[in-house]
Amino acid sequence: MIYTDPQQAAGPIRAALADAQRILLLSHVNPDGDAIGSMLGTMHVLRALGKEVIALASSAPLDYCAALPGFADVHIYRPGESLPDCDLIWMVDVAHLSRAGAIYDEHQATLVARPLIIVDHHATNDGGGTVSLIRAQEPSCADVLFDLFAALGWPLSPDAATCLFLGMMTDTQSFQTPNVKPATLRRAAALLEAGADKQLVVDAVFFSIPPSTLRLTGMAMAHLQQDDGIFWVVVTQEMMQTAGADEKATDDTVGRLQRVAGMRACALFRERADGTVKISLRSIPGIDVATVARLWGGGGHRQAAGATLQMSLEAAVAAVLPALRQAVQQQRHE
Ligand SMILES: [Mn+2]
């Protein structure tokens, strides 16, 4: 059953929980702040209710998640492992069960054989849980959980509040995204009142860039190119080695690239060790880069998408720029 109103979902979720003592929490692969913040926020809330909770990450989370209270209890799934025993599965921030990655590939039957609660905020989520609460208008899964826990009357400890606050803050890019509404800020305020450690979250997310990452971003930005509102940078294997940076470093580069004045669409081209090229695309509202990513079998959101191209860096730049130009032109004609 799919619910969009936390008040209506509260009853069925309370009933499902009444029959369950051991609960397995899951989220999506390459877990971000909202995935882990939502997972750990839920863990703290359920533990306070006397439940036994296992938090299982589908793969290694983003580094800043490690600052969260309870992170030491997160187990990172390794392909081939069995799923821990449980009476109920609770998934957060997962648009589709398959986004649980190897856990889904290897344990699909188990996932659907147990009572399953899904709480999410992805517009593409089509439910699939015994009880699904999906609110696509909310900027983070943590926002949805906040309303659900309020509807259930389940209290938030300071630790739970800190975890939800990180989810909310990272998915909204610090409350910058257009889907942030007065209600979002009221929830954030309520989390601070509940004892959320804002400074811990801010330090972990914004004051923790590895020097190697900044070096790589600097090298890439030194050769920033632009043409009529389209900005792009290229990252070679040689640059990554010189900077001593890992694959995650370019997240920082893209994050800065999309802030350049006059940007309508931007692209980062990263050469991989296997000779393929990873593209990361961003755009302003109204310009759809997901369709560009799909040309090479990739995907994502309209304003943030990516793909892997089986060609050289030079060929990738030559192929992607015309497609980006077309996406930008299309918006002008809308
Ligand atoms: Mn999210």
Task: Set out the fold topology.
Blueprint: E1 2-3, H1 6-18, E2 22-26, H2 33-48, E3 52-57, E4 74-76, E5 88-92, H3 102-113, E6 116-120, E7 131-134, H4 141-152, H5 158-171, H6 182-193, H7 198-206, H8 211-221, E8 225-227, E9 230-235, H9 237-243, H10 249-257, E10 265-271, E11 277-283, H11 290-294, E12 299-301, E13 304-309, H12 313-333
The structure holds manganese (II) ion.
Summarize the structure.
The chain has helices at residues 6-18, 33-48, 102-113, 141-152, 158-171, 182-193, 198-206, 211-221, 237-243, 249-257, 290-294, 313-333, and strands at 2-3, 22-26, 52-57, 74-76, 88-92, 116-120, 131-134, 225-227, 230-235, 265-271, 277-283, 299-301, 304-309. The protein is globular, with a radius of gyration of 21 Å.
Describe the model.
The protein is 42% helix and 19% strand. The chain starts with a strand and ends with a helix. The strands form two sheets. Strands 1-7-6-5-2-3-4 form a seven-stranded parallel β-sheet, with helices on both faces. It has a six-stranded mixed β-sheet with strand order 8-9-10-11-13-12, with helices on both faces. It folds into two domains: 2-206, inorganic pyrophosphatase (n-terminal core) (Alpha-Beta Complex), CATH 3.90.1640; 212-333, Diaminopimelate Epimerase, Chain A, domain 1 (Roll), CATH 3.10.310.30. A hairpin with a 2-residue loop joins strand 8 (225-227) and strand 9 (230-235). It contains twelve helices and 13 strands. The longest helix has 21 residues, at 313-333. Residues 34, 93, 121, 140-141, 171 line the site of manganese (II) ion.
